[in-house]
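A reminder from the course coordinator: this example appears on the midterm review sheet, so study it carefully.

Given structure:
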C-alpha cells in the first residue's frame, strides 16, 4: 500500500494523457508501436513508470496473459473485475477459421471510464504469438476476421489505476452475407470437395437450391468481372472483394443483372438462380465459389454458414467477484476452460481456498494463493463464511497476507488466541480472529 499512496498522485497526472490519446509523447528510437496497447506500454517506458512496482506489474500481467491463457468455445461471455491496485490481464484462447467474423465486446462499470485494450494474437504450433488485430484507442469493441485456420488468443487488459466490473462477450458470425435472397446455409445441399465426374475433379463450391428467378445477391462489396458463359457454369459472374483478396463466383445463373466493371454493395442483385451450363438436368440452384487472389478454391461454407447467435452463459452475480471460496468436494480440478472437457491445470484438495476473479454462474474463474488461474465448477465449491473448525494457537505466530513463507506479515498473533479455520492451501491455513481479521498462518 505504501507504494500506491506515494506514487498514485503522480501516476494519475501522467496517465491522464494516456487515457486521452494512448501516449504521453513521441516514442524514441526505431520502435514504432503497432497497437494502442503497445503505445500505452511505450509511454509508460518513456515516462519511466515501468520502473515503478505498479507499472512493472502491468507489463508483466500483459506478458503473462499470453502464456497462461484460458480456453473457451465461442460464443462465450463472462464477468470479472479490474482492480486499480492490482494490474490484471486475461487471455482467452480459441479456434478461428478463415471465413469467421468475431465480435469482441468489453463492457465496464465503475466510477470512472476505463480504457480497455483488446488485442488478438495468432498462436503457432510452438505457442509463439504474433499480433494480428487490435481494438481502436477509443473503443472497447473489436471486429476481426481470421486469415488462417489456427488457434488465436484474445488478450484483454485495462489501463492502470482504474477499477471496474467488466463483462466480455465473444460471438461469431459469417464474414460474408448469404448469396441467395431469402435463404440461408440450411438450403445448401452439395458441399465443397465432393467428387465430380466420376472422381476426375472435386466440387469447388457449394450448391444452394432455390426457385428459378430467385435473386442471387452480392455477399460482399466489390467490383464485378468475368460476366460471361462457360461450359460448366453456364451464365457466370465474379465479384472481386479487394478487402479480403477474394474472387466470389456465381454460376448456373438464369440471367445476369450486372456488367463487367460495375461496383456492387452487399445485397445488390448479381443475377437470378437458374440451371444453365452442366446443371441443365438438375433443379435450379446457385453454384457459389470463392477463390483467393493468389490461391485456388477455398471452402465457402465458413464464409456464409449461419452464425451461432449471442452468448448465453448465465452471468455471475456481481456481488461474488472478489469473494473467497473453498473446495467442497474431496477434490476438484482447476481447468483451463469453463468445461469439464478442458485440460486440468491442477487437482485441488478439499478445503483449498480460492478467490473468485470472474466467470459465469456455472463455471467460476478463480485464482489460487500461488497465482494460478483457471475454472472450477461452481457446484464443487462453497463460501468460506462457515468455519471448518476452531483451534487455540499454542505459540505466537504471524498472520500473513498470503499462503507463502515470504508473504508480508499483517500482525503478530499471541499464543492462546482463538482462530477459526476458513480454508487451507499448501501447508497454510486461512484463519479468522475473533475480531474479524483474516489472514494466513502456517500449519
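Designed residues:
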Amino acid at each position: 500500500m505504501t507504494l500506491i499512496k506515494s506514487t498514485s498522485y503522480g501516476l494519475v497526472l501522467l496517465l491522464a494523457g494516456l487515457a486521452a490519446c494512448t501516449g504521453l509523447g513521441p516514442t524514441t528510437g526505431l520502435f514504432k508501436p503497432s497497437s494502442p496497447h503497445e503505445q500505452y506500454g511505450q509511454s509508460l517506458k518513456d515516462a519511466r513508470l515501468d520502473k515503478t512496482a505498479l507499472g512493472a506489474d502491468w507489463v508483466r500481467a500483459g506478458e503473462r496473459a499470453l502464456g497462461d491463457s484460458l480456453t473457451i468455445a465461442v460464443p462465450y461471455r463472462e464477468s470479472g473485475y479490474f482492480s486499480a491496485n492490482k494490474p490484471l490481464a486475461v487471455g482467452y484462447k480459441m479456434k478461428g477459421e478463415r471465413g469467421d467474423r468475431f465480435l469482441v465486446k468489453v463492457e465496464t462499470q465503475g466510477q470512472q471510464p476505463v480504457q480497455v485494450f483488446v488485442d488478438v494474437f495468432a498462436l503457432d504450433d510452438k505457442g509463439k504469438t504474433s499480433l494480428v488485430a487490435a481494438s481502436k484507442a477509443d473503443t472497447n469493441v473489436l471486429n476481426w476476421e481470421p486469415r488462417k485456420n489456427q488457434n488465436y488468443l484474445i488478450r484483454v487488459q485495462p489501463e492502470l489505476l482504474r477499477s471496474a466490473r467488466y463483462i466480455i462477450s465473444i460471438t461469431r458470425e459469417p464474414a460474408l452475407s448469404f448469396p441467395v435472397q431469402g435463404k440461408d446455409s440450411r438450403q445448401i445441399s452439395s458441399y465443397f470437395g465432393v467428387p465430380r465426374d466420376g472422381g476426375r475433379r472435386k466440387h469447388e463450391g457449394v450448391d444452394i437450391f432455390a426457385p428459378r428467378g430467385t435473386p442471387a445477391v452480392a455477399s460482399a462489396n466489390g467490383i464485378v468481372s468475368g460476366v460471361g458463359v462457360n461450359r460448366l457454369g453456364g451464365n457466370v459472374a465474379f465479384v472481386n472483394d479487394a478487402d479480403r483478396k477474394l474472387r466470389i463466383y456465381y454460376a448456373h445463373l438464369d440471367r445476369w443483372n450486372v456488367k463487367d466493371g460495375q461496383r456492387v454493395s452487399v445485397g445488390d442483385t448479381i443475377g437470378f438462380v437458374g440451371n444453365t451450363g452442366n446443371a441443365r438436368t438438375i433443379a435450379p440452384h446457385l453454384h457459389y465459389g470463392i477463390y483467393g487472389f493468389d490461391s485456388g478454391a477455398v471452402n465457402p461454407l465458413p464464409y456464409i454458414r449461419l452464425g451461432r447467435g449471442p452468448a448465453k452463459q448465465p452471468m455471475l452475480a456481481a456481488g461474488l467477484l472478489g469473494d473467497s471460496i473453498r473446495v467442497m468436494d474431496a477434490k476438484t480440478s482447476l481447468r483451463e476452460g469453463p468445461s469439464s472437457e478442458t485440460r486440468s491445470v491442477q487437482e485441488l484438495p478439499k478445503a483449498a481456498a480460492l478467490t473468485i476473479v470472474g466467470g459465469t454462474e456455472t463455471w467460476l474463474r478463480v485464482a489460487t494463493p500461488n497465482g494460478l488461474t483457471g475454472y472450477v465448477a461452481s457446484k464443487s465449491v462453497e463460501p468460506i463464511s462457515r468455519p471448518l473448525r476452531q483451534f487455540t494457537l499454542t505459540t505466537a505466530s504471524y498472520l500473513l497476507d498470503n499462503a507463502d513463507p515470504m508473504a508480508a506479515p499483517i500482525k503478530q498473533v499471541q499464543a492462546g488466541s482463538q482462530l477459526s479455520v476458513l480454508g487451507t492451501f499448501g501447508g497454510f491455513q486461512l484463519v479468522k480472529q475473533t475480531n474479524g481479521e483474516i489472514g494466513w498462518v502456517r500449519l
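The chain has four helices and 34 strands. The first strand starts at residue 70 and ends at 71.
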